[in-house]
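Appendix B, Record 12. Input sequence as logged:
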Amino acid sequence: MRAETSIPVNEIIATRRSPRSFNEVAEISNEDLTAILEAARWAPSAFNGQPWRFFVGKRGDEVFNQILSSLVEFNQMWSKSASALILVASKTAKADGSPHGDYLFDCGLSVAQLVIEAHDRGLVAHQMTGFDREKAKVAVSMPEELTAVVVIAVGVQDAPEKLSGPLLERETAKRERLALHEIVLKGLPF
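Logged structural output:
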């Protein structure tokens, strides 16, 4: 379903969704997985600090299961069918040891590019903050200097009807955002 934008935007942005219905037999190629991580790598970051780090698992492998185990039950129910799970972590200190106050912003930019590249390749991605960060850190043996930020499920979208209850409701809900005049407080005449 295409977003109802106030003015035409890039088609990937207009059609991108964060679905929960994944094809449980579809596999992601190493080329596609590498490409979406490469897109994330080239994101802008404050002072080119590139604080993001990725833990990547394909469905059925050890890393996938480690990441899956850290998700809240609601997210485990549907994300187990994804082709890959990516745990995004970040350095929270700069090279000089001072706090990196912009690491979440930087990771967000990196994840956005990852998501756009995934959708451009005919895949879908769903970002989740519903996971136990400490459990994830232990599960993947994350270095102490990193903090867990977000988990992304990537794969091939499947029919919404494969889901039920609240999952189906969320899957088929209209894609909505606040109106532009509600978020642009100064600067453009609407």
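The two ends are 26 Å apart (CA to CA).
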